[in-house]
Amino acid sequence: MATSEDKNIRKTFTVLENSKTDNEKFAALLLFAKTTNAKELSLEDRKRALDAIGVTFFNRLLKSKNIPEDCEVDVYRSLALKILSGLCGDNQLVLEFEVYKNLRSINDIITDSDSQEDMIIDCYDLLSAFAQTEEGSIKLVDYGTVTALSEVITKHLPGCEKGQIILQSVLQLCGDYSWKKDTPSMQVVLEHFCKQLETFQDERKFDLCAVVSGIVSSLPKDVAKKSLQRTWFKSLVHAIADMFTSKLGQPQRDPALRLASSVLDKLGVDCILPPNRDDCKLLLVIIHLSCIEVRISLENLNPDQIMSKADTLVSCYNLLELIICHMTSAPSLKLDENQVLQLHSAMEGAFNSVIFYLREQSELEIQRVDPSQIVLASVRVLGSWVAEETSALKARVQEILPFILKLCKCQLKCTKTKRPSLKKKSVKFKSDTEDRSESTLSSELESCTITQEETENNTIPENVDLSKDSSESHSDITSEDVKDSCSCDASESDNSNHKHLVNQDSTNSDSTRTNSEESEKLEINKSDQSVCSNSTSSGTSVSETLISAM
């Protein structure tokens, strides 16, 4: 049996659908606002109401300046925003009914310091619905809302805290698109936050780390290259130095490490080295703290606690990978002997913890189709260490190689299923870790001499030597293994194998077969030599690189 409330709703819908003129629609809207709570309506009822009213009518109400003398100045806009925010709380409806056409009017309202508080709240409710999806976030960028939010934040206008949350969401979903559309506004808002980060000396400093990290992570490469001359860059580096030279508790370490990871990833390790800093002590402090955090997390926490610290742990992994890349490809850090020994010892301890964690997870993860992201991240960072340091922890790495290789093959098969056209890419480490291909890890790990049969049986041959260079270490890998790992072009090899099978009684064909296999191995060695950086191929490990830096 229908309640009186249901009857009122049906009556209101009837009035809305039968209204023809603007005056009739406005009267129906007043009735709708008085008798109905739009936020409690079902999705079907909301669509029905939006169809009856029409988004263009809302647009006219928001822009209309012909206000009756006995009415408030914002009566039309206030009514339109109240109903729109109630009906369009769902992120699908704001796009389906083209509510984005009203965004410019909303921008004017949130940047007007004289706007009513209720109107501003309704505006941000609508903007929040847009910011929940990538398509909606792109609309916010295209219609100038990000520019408006930047003005709201920098001028501390009403609603700036909500505007900050929405801006973070947009940057996370759109990446560098916001910068490409309006670089000046983004520079202003970044400078605003970096100045605050430098100035604040309380918990607000660490609350801002996530905001600044999100903005820096969205920097396009061309903007990042020119950032070292910006005012905000100096404030940012000074703020990072201030944090890492202070005594930090656990609540402060996590955001500080995540910020440092984002900054070094986008701006490069050089940004905290001379001439931007007097010395390299800040980098050493960050790396030491990252190593300590990795050891504490992987050795002392249970699996659930480790997953809760996933963001911080991955940030520490990224910092370790960045410093390895820098030490093996960039100019010397000019460290003294004590600093060299301390740095190598700290990193060796961190990677020992990574191996300990992977060994614990091997029996569990090998049973699963989709291993946790922490496991995959741990394998990747260990791969960066193995690619450059061939002597330290060699025995412990050998123990978990069967698990790692099987995991890599499983992941590559999943990748091939999703992207059949996966091509082999060069995997030399670069300063920008984003340039590394998805096949990097498996290629690095296959530099060890393990055959496919030995991997499947989870056994390690006695003659495995991780210190071998790439030209020797691939001698026992079959062409099928290489094909499975990195989608190599093996058509010539297959053709030669076929000819050999057909003419196996012929001595000449046997000779051709031998030459073909030698040629094939040569090709494999050439392609796989890109796995290790120049320091590895020349027999130089991380420890030797550090010693040369003295």
Ordered list of secondary-structure elements with their pairings:
Blueprint: H1 4-18, H2 22-35, H3 43-53, H4 55-63, H5 75-87, H6 91-96, H7 103-110, H8 117-130, H9 134-142, H10 145-154, H11 160-174, H12 177-181, H13 183-199, H14 203-217, H15 221-225, H16 231-244, H17 250-267, H18 281-300, H19 303-308, H20 310-329, H21 337-365, H22 373-388, H23 394-418, H24 440-445, H25 452-456, H26 470-473, H27 479-486, H28 491-502, H29 507-528, H30 534-537, H31 542-548
Report on this model:
- The chain contains 31 helices and no strands.
- The protein is mainly α.
- Helix 9 packs across helix 11, helix 18 packs across helix 20 and helix 20 runs parallel beside helix 22.
- It is elongated and about 85 Å long.
- The termini are far apart.
- The C terminus is likely disordered.
Number of strands: 0
> Structural class of the secondary structure composition?
mainly alpha
Helix percent reads: 55-70%
- Which spans have pLDDT < 50 for at least 5 consecutive residues? 420-541, 543-550
Tell me the β content. Answer: under 5%
Query: C-alpha Rg, in Å?
Result: 30 Å
Head-to-tail CA distance between termini? 86 Å
Number of helices: 31
> Averaging pLDDT over every residue, what do you get?
76
Give a short account of the largest sheet.
none
Coarse shape: elongated
